[in-house]
Design goal:
Helices cover about 15% and strands about 30% of the residues. The chain has four helices and 15 strands. A six-stranded antiparallel beta sheet has the order 1-2-3-10-5-8. A four-stranded antiparallel beta sheet has the order 4-9-6-7, with no helix packed on it. Strands 13-14-15 form a three-stranded parallel beta sheet, covered by helices on one side. Strand 11 and strand 12 form a beta hairpin. It is elongated. The protein starts with about 30 loop residues before the first strand and ends in a 6-residue tail after the last strand.
Amino acid sequence: MTHTHFAAEPTGTPAADGRFGTPQLMESVGYVPGLMFQPVLGESMLADFVIFQPHTEAPLHVHGEEQIAVVVAGESDFTIDGHTRTMRVGDVAVVPPWVSHGAVTRDIGCREIDMFSPPRATLLEHARKAPPASIVPRPGGGGFRLMDLGWLGGGLDVLVNNAGGANPGTLETLPEEAWRRDLDVKLFGQIRCFRAALPHLRQSPGPRVVNINAVYAKNPDSACFATTVNRAACLNPRCSRSSTAPGTSR
């Protein structure tokens, strides 16, 4: 016998069509530095995916909507009506209407999901916007997309670029098409991935990009001239990223 909690027969009229979404693909909105909101609107409630950078404060404030906050990554010092608690992953805060509350992060950031009933008035306009996909056009049409990023897993903190292929040939003998193919995969592939990931990496408290390079980056080989050139182009000590060049595998 099925419990009434899982009733299969409706006793009312559906209010709207159901839908799916990916909050990370939505444009964020922020009202104070280091604090970003990604609201998702339902028919009578609103879920807000909140990202705190380290050393960020949501000042004490009040509103007429009831709020339930759930921490899903990191931690913050959450204050409700003068009482403060350090909230970590899995902790929940219930804030009734018009009760003063706020939060602050210390050395690490925090991600939480705030649920509002009725929907938070100051987020309604932004929440009604359709979430755009992160698309970076590539030559010949089409696009590169970062889709279905696991928000509950902490978002995107690290991007690892690893693409390769052999186009042997010297500067004199290598056809132009082989040059283009080699550069498109090894150099522009990294650029496309980085540009598509950048909006998500900026929301991480500790973003990092790791480019898997090749030994040719620092040890040129005239017989693999295209690889030598584009692998060297991927090295930039002034960038906040890591490039590792493993040697020959056996």
